[in-house]
Amino acid sequence: MIANDDVVDIWTIVVAAGSGSRFGGPKQFFDLRGERVVDRSVRIAAAHSAGVVVVLSAEVLEETGPSRLTPGSSTRVVVVVGSDTRSGSVREGLAAVPAEATVILVHDGARPLATDEVYERVLLAVAAGADAVVPVVPVTDTIRRRSGGVVDRADLVAIQTPQGFRAEALRAAHAAADDATDDATLVEAGGGRVVLVDGDSDNMKITDPSDLEIARLLLARRGETP
Ligand code: CTP
Ligand code: MG
Fold it and tell me: Does residue 1 fall inside a structural domain?
């Protein structure tokens, strides 16, 4: 276990400024066994970070303020306003990460079931010299191209967060970036070394309303009380 004391230079950006169009509303503020989805995401991130930057939409910040985003530890929490795209929101978060951070994680606020083990695998791979680390899980569906032909599943993985970065590599990638690509792909395009580690099949992203029900069931199965 990487203890909080050892992580003074690790900061995590939790992006939670999306509108949840597929869900039908901002899913990150729905209840998950007594805790909002985003609060759980921030709480787990805080256990592995010296500080967390939470990226929220301007509307949410006006309405509710950041009051509940306090993980109850010595971890610093900074709240900033996001942007129209996920990568724009990451960039706003990045601007609020202190210069002394040497490792930066980026995590989806809508992914509340990230485990400590996934965080640790990502952080260890960054410490071992990767520029970017991506947790992945095997693809279980058979994938077919619309144009015809089945894609070889053995070569495919599904990408999760938290993704981890050497801070300089992430800053450089975003400084040179156009908007559409994900962070690790940006680092890779700049010649950085991207390492894949095992994610966790429970570390799902809440996308549709049924995902929230599944997340509640997964937590109940773990016997966790909020
Ligand atoms: N996100 C963000 N800023 C955006 C878009 C997305 O901070 N402009 C965040 C979301 O809040 C979420 C994460 O990025 O925590 C992953 O995005 P996604 O699951 O696509 O969430 P939404 O964009 O809100 O959902 P949808 O695509 O269905 O509208
Ligand atoms: Mg989206």
Answer: no
